[in-house]
Amino acid sequence: MSDPAKLELLTRKAGESGFQVQEVQSSQVYYLFRPARLPETEWELKPQPRSPDGSRSYILRNRRLDRYLLLSPKEHFLWERFDGRNSLMDIGRAFHFEFGSFDYSVIRQFLAKLHYAGLLEQPAVSALRRSLAGEEGPWWARTFRAAMKLWGRISFKTSNADRYCSILYNRGGFLLIHPVTFSVVVILAVAAIAAVVRLAPEAREISLRLAAWPFLSTAVIVGALLVAAMLHVLVHALACKAYGRRVREMGFFLLQGVLPTFYADVTDIFMASRRARVVVDLAGPMVEVVFGSLAFLGAFWSEPGMAQSLLFGAGILFWESALLNIYPFNFLEMDGYNILADLLAMPTLRQQALNLFPALPGRLRDGKLLGKSEWIQVGYLTLCLISVLAYIIAHLDAIGLKMTAAH
């Protein structure tokens, strides 16, 4: 077995001309390291509501870099002790007394998160060193990085989105985030449901007209969905401004390098109340609800023809998009999931549930009782599975009906 890594230090006492070599094991240096968080003026800590098991998470914000971290109770315990006075050995001992066990990898992972968020005192890295690092590697790696950089230019963002959103909000955007507006949306949706019921007997003829012009119908509906997506994120941003929080940036990118996606970074709303976060999450899907309602009403008042078919088809897609956004049980971390996680005070509900799933058979076989939070996670997984299966079956039936109509 190789010897443990060591640090060799040259030391010299006062009045002596020669140096002495002093060896220190690297593990000893690591345990004596004293991590220091930034001064309190550089960060902000926001406690979240307690979860069903009584634990509390925290949102940690770097004020200067405007970056955010979600801290678990154990990470918050560590953060409180990263004051530059406690060594990792002292922190590990305190952690063990508090939680009953400890693994130093917990600290390493948390230090990596804090380093990424710029929340630790540390020397700055030379800009020259960073630029030289980008030039290293074989030619194919440099070519790949250059190609990915070029492809990434398709994406764009605006860092002064907060100023634009403030202008829009003050010049009438506040009307979109108002209880009266929500009431109007509900009335429109009820009227649209009545229109759909009246149009239901004509669904076969409407589908046949769309099938007769596949390229036109696809182009019109996709264009309408892109416009709705832009307004979706804009309303999210305006709702964030309604609570006096900052919109960090807005932009566009290709999800998985293919799907056009608009986004608004409203992470600052985590520093507000739970009610504010729910309103911001709810505001976006209301855009699709309004567009879908107007499309259905337009189809109802239109004469039978291609225009009616396009409006009806767009209404279906808008409402389906709103449902996918606001329905929390589909394994996707969309608006509805965020609302559910906020109401339950379980910000990592999906990840906790997925982590519990592999161990669940063994837990049940051993007769170990599940806690309240774990039952909620099991319920979440069950509803997700049922919902996804129901969605697939419903769409297979719809495809079968369309094929039958086409013949």
List keywords for this structure.
mainly alpha, disordered N terminus, 15 helices, 3-stranded antiparallel beta sheet
List segments where confidence is low: pLDDT < 50 over at least 5 consecutive residues.
Answer: 1-10, 23-29, 123-133
Q: What quaternary form is this?
A: single chain
Query: Strand order within the widest sheet?
Result: 3-4-5
Distance between the termini: 75 Å
Percent range for helical residues? Answer: 55-70%
Characterize the largest beta sheet: strand count, sense, and whether it forms a barrel. 3 strands, antiparallel
Structural class, from helix and strand content?
A: mainly alpha
Number of domains: 3
Number of helices: 15
Radius of gyration: 28 Å
> What's the total number of strands?
8
Give the amount of beta strand, in percent: 5-15%
| Succession of helices and strands | EEHEEEHHHHHEHHHHEEHHHHH
Shape type: globular
Arithmetic mean of pLDDT: 81
Descriptive notes:
There is one protein chain. Helix 7 (161-170) packs across helix 10 (214-242). This protein is mostly helical and 407 residues long. It has three domains: 33-116, no CATH class; 159-326, no CATH class; 344-407. It is built from 15 helices and eight strands. Strand 4 and strand 5 form a beta hairpin.
